[in-house]
């Protein structure tokens, strides 16, 4: 039924638990999975400055990119055992918007994600990203608690 499953990962434990669920589902339905990590875009005004700030900007940019790729590599290694066809993608932008865009443009049948992620604020059932994706995605969304 769900041939293409999108699994957004932010490096949190909850996203990993959701990914495990997605892999079980994918295995039982012979689906393919795309792991997506969205790096929140840095404020563009910093670009205007050269020297110190420009250097720091570049450094943060590169570190975030490297961390994103690391999260993807870990996922590939960890979930290889399911024998499911997997791909990974790291992009920059607004996480909720990019997840919804990918779901639509990639014609995904389902998004599987965690209820919460790396955010520290306690007391909410769902984080801001999962909240927005549930409301705006063009396909069904499965939130794993
Ligand atoms: N940058 C991201 N890239 C990919 N997936 C993400 C990203 N951020 C969150 N997610 C996905 O959304 C799920 C819920 O995370 P969310 O960010 O909504 O909660 P939170 O971090 O606890 O709260 P908030 O970010 O609002 O402080 C995660 O388990 C993960 O599946
Ligand atoms: Mg978050």
Q: How does this structure look, described?
A:
With 145 residues, the protein is α/β, with parallel strands linked by helices. It has a single domain, classed as Rossmann fold (3-Layer(aba) Sandwich), CATH 3.40.50. It has a five-stranded parallel β-sheet, with helices on both faces. α3 packs parallel to α4. The longest helix is centred in the middle third of the chain and has 29 residues. It is globular, with a radius of gyration of 16 Å. The site of magnesium ion has 6 residues, from loops.
Placed side by side, the strands forming the largest sheet appear as 3-2-1-4-5
- Report on the biggest sheet: 5 strands, parallel
Elements, N to C (H/E): EHEHEHEHE
Domains, number: 1
Low-pLDDT runs of 5+ residues are none
Q: So what's the overall shape?
A: globular
**β content, as a range?**
15-25%
| Averaged pLDDT | 94
Summarize the structure.
The chain has helices at 13-29, 51-79, 95-105, 128-136; strands at 4-8, 32-39, 85-92, 110-114, 141-144.
Q: Which characteristics define this entry?
A:
binds adenosine-5'-triphosphate; alpha/beta; Rossmann fold; 145 residues; globular; 46% helix
What is the fold's blueprint, element by element?
Elements: E1 4-8, H1 13-29, E2 32-39, H2 51-79, E3 85-92, H3 95-105, E4 110-114, H4 128-136, E5 141-144
Parallel strand pairs: 1-2, 1-4, 2-3, 4-5
Helix pairs in contact: 3-4
